[in-house]
Write a structure and sequence with these properties.
Helix content of chain B: under 10%
Structural class of chain B: mainly beta
Strand content of chain A: over 45%
Shape of chain B: globular
Number of strands of chain B: 12
Shape of chain A: globular
Helix content of chain A: under 10%
Oligomer: heterodimer
Number of strands of chain A: 11
Order of helices and strands of chain B: EEEEEEEEEEEE
Largest sheet of chain B: 6 strands, mixed
Largest interface: A-B, 26 and 22 residues
Radius of gyration of chain B: 13 Å
Structural class of chain A: mainly beta
């Protein structure tokens, strides 16, 4: 089992609330990622980071923001949650290397915005 | 650009029978190919990867995958399915020119019936 953690695992929140999804890894990985997984199962990369103070937007446009102040921590924030944000959010990390290192995934946060 | 396709939304197989989950890819450079499995309410778990060398790659839980360059495929296989193999399976590809960004397929739900 990979050492990557996400909290909360489940969150039900009302429209307009600000939320932060936490992601931490203890593997010392430089690269971290956030994916959004829709009900149809497909995964979409929404944010990634190559290291401290590095953040980039992914393939899918998202109203969320991320920060990377510490190597092990990569939180995702929604300033004002909307029902369209209802989804599963998966955090992942990988080593920085020249090879194709696999990504390790956290258990996910299932967000429901009412 | 890189892309990956999983043509089957669901695969049904009887326990003890061989299983195949299909994956085809498109990259401009050389492909790095991955299979992940997702159990209910869990994150993705790495199964196996192809980088170079032997076209038949063996992974966790008795799974294997065959890289076929001419058909641009990387099908996942197992000689004898177990009910506990029932899960979502994701194929992913990274072009060796594309940093460490993975592109995931849409996922295939495997149902193994007793």
């Amino acid at each position: 089992e990979a050492d990557i953690y996400q909290t909360p695992r489940y969150l039900v929140i009302g429209t307009g609330k600000k939320i932060t999804l936490e992601c931490s890894q203890t593997m010392g990985h430089d690269k971290m990622y956030w994916y959004q997984q829709d009900p149809g199962m497909e995964l979409h990369l929404i944010h990634y980071s190559y290291g401290v103070n590095s953040t980039e937007k992914g393939d899918l446009s998202s109203e969320s923001t991320v920060s990377r102040i510490r190597t092990e921590h990569f939180p995702l924030t929604l300033e004002s949650a909307r029902p369209s944000h209802t989804s599963q959010y998966l955090c992942a990390s990988s080593e920085w290397g020249g090879g194709p290192d696999e990504q390790y995934f956290g258990p996910g946060t299932r967000l429901t915005v009412t | 650009a890189q892309s990956v396709a999983q043509p089957e939304d669901q695969v049904n197989v009887a326990e003890g029978n061989p299983l195949t989950v299909k994956c085809t890819y498109s990259v401009s450079g050389n492909p790095y190919l991955f299979w992940y499995v997702q159990y209910p309410n869990r994150g993705l778990q790495f199964l196996l990867k192809y980088i170079t060398g032997d076209n038949l790659v063996k992974g966790s839980y008795g799974f294997e995958a065959e890289f076929n360059k001419s058909q641009t495929s990387f099908h996942l296989k197992k000689p004898s399915a177990l009910v506990s193999d029932s899960a979502l399976y994701f194929c992913a590809v990274r072009d060796d020119n594309a940093g460490n960004m993975l592109t995931f397929g849409g996922g295939t739900r495997l149902m193994v019936k007793p």
